[in-house]
Design brief:
Length: 302
Amino acid sequence: MNPLNRLPLQSLRAVEAVARLGSLAAAAADLGVTPGAISQQVIRAEKILGLTLFERRPSGMVPTARGAPVTAQLQRGFAELSAAVARAARTDDALTVSVAPVFAARWLIWRLPRFRARHPDTRIRLDASLGLIDPTSGEADICIRNGPGGYSGVTVEKLWPQVIFPVCAPGLATRLTTHADLARVPVIRETGPNFGWQHWLGPEGHPDVTPGDGPLFSDSMLCLDAAISGEGVFLSFETLAADAIAMGRLVAPFPGRHATQNHYWLVTAADARPTRPMRAFTTWLKEEVAAAGLGRTSPLRP
């Protein structure tokens, strides 16, 4: 007899939701029922299995020692079911790549024609948003993420380090002879960046320099455009500034390029077998990164 025939699906859904969310109320909201209904389904499952799955604590529902491996496997199973449904709901067979808007707009999209020329039979759908899509949900085939790492429950490959350096309009660069000059020019800043001037000035051997004040923007792309217009110096990163430098709209007044604690990562669903389009895109992306020289840094200065 199939073990699944012992338990109604709604009981398993209730157990999984409680384990994932930690309370009857949260599970009820997730499944669109009442907390009482969730409680009854959990009790029903425990009775049929002859196993206490949760400890009822003031802080919420916590899996027991014997219940933990059961609920963990249920979570993996329902995640697989959700991914299958999401994949079936797609209207075409395009390869969905999830990236941050700044990476899509300032670097990736300008290079995609070369991918299409090489793989005309593969359609790319870019999901450019700040929300972190879990590839195990089936919403994306590949995710490119920038951060310190530590992603769990997925397959992760480190691609290249995030490298930073100051940029400015060519006219302003004439005022920057030494690092100390950064204190005497306007400096453009982004609110809430994931790195700061200390991550560049320290490796340059000038940790005591305090860059000047200047405009403040909430978005790195706005900061870069402000630098192009001559409003000040901006501490940028490679994928944001590379094309503007190549076109002569910006220059890097100092040669030093240094890595932050962050990297770019290729994230896919755990245990997923890469499809031909996924392999083609990954190979092409690595070739583009190598050709652009991304991730190369300068020696640290004493």
